[in-house]
């Protein structure tokens, strides 16, 4: 593997995990709102 390939893989994984984290936080906030704002 070349350094460029490793960097690209890290960037892609970073974007994927970042997107999942954002979706999870949005879903968590919606669930909290449904329950009456309990955190």
Keywords:
single chain; 39 residues; mainly alpha; 1 helix
Q: Which structural class is indicated by helix and strand composition?
A: mainly alpha
* Count of individual beta strands: 0
* pLDDT < 50 runs, ≥5 residues: none
Largest sheet: none
* Helical content (DSSP H or I, runs of 4+): over 70%
**Rounded Rg:** 16 Å
Oligomeric nature of the chains? single chain
As a percent range, the share of strand residues is under 5%
Count of helical stretches: 1
What's a quick, concise take on this entry?
The protein is mainly alpha-helical. It is 82% helix and 0% strand.
Question: What does this molecule look like?
Answer:
This protein is 82% helix and 0% strand. It has one helix at residues 3-34. It is rod-shaped, with a radius of gyration of 16 Å.
SSE blueprint:
Elements (H helix, E strand, L loop, with lengths): L2 H32 L5
């Amino acid at each position: 593997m070349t350094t460029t390939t490793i960097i690209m893989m890290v960037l892609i994984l970073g974007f994927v995990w970042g997107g999942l984290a954002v979706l999870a936080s949005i879903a968590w906030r919606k669930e909290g709102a449904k329950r009456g704002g309990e955190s």
